[in-house]
Amino acid sequence: PRTVGVLALQGDFREHREMLEAMGHRAIEIRKPAQLEGIDALIIPGGESTTIARLILSNGFQQPLRDFCASGKPTWGTCAGAILLAQEVDRLDRPGIEVMAIRVRRNAFGRQVDSFEEEIAIDGIEGGPFRAVFIRAPVIERVDPPARAIARLEDGTVVAARQGNLLATSFHPELTHDPRLHAYFLAMGAPQGAAK
Ligand code: GLN
Questions:
Q1: Is 58 annotated as a binding residue?
Q2: Which Gene3D superfamilies does the annotation name (predicted)?
């Protein structure tokens, strides 16, 4: 089992914690930068990216989160979390963590489509399509190396990207009961051949 932190400033951190615990891992709600010391991997949940960005700054999390991402440990942003990992975002009134070479557009599906679900294929995920839940979701408009797109909607819109130990998804895998993407994420940090 791994010890996985879930940034718990705002948003749906509880659902990630429940998924991780159901998989047999230890999940820790991270509210203070010092808690980043003891974890093997970190999830930045969905929620409201402007609010989370504000709380990151006011709680002294910005540099510690950048350092965590640079440490090589798996770090995953879902929805608002993906917005915070992006180096470029339209309309975010303050800086996020800005570590992935992606450009993200917030609320990109428009107000008339607040939420929807689609079965998608994800590179590296076997066993059939993955049911992706989108809620006021961003799209990944541009992916520059070393980041690469790993999932698209039928129309080609990029909804997941990976850059080494960093993962960004526009959708919410913690809201379904499919643990495959959480397992993929945790394996991003596994040494070659190590037991998971
Ligand atoms: N619309 C939100 C934002 O821009 C993200 C929504 C979500 O995380 N489900 O921050």
A1: no
A2: 3.40.50.880
Question: Where are any strands of DSSP class E within the chain?
Answer: 3-7, 26-30, 41-44, 75-78, 86-89, 100-105, 115-120, 130-135, 139-143, 148-152, 158-163, 166-169
The answer to whether the complex's ipTM is over 0.85 is: yes
Residue 183, SS3 per DSSP = helix
Counting from 1 in the atom list of ligand 1, the atom nearest the Cα of 79 is 8
In this prediction the pTM is: 0.95
The residues annotated with a catalytic role in the active site are 79, 172, 174
**Contact indicator for 165, 109 with CB cutoff of 8 Å:** no
Alpha carbons 42 and 195: distance in angstroms, whole number: 19
All structural domains of the chain, each given as residue ranges with its CATH number in brackets, are 3-187 (3.40.50.880)
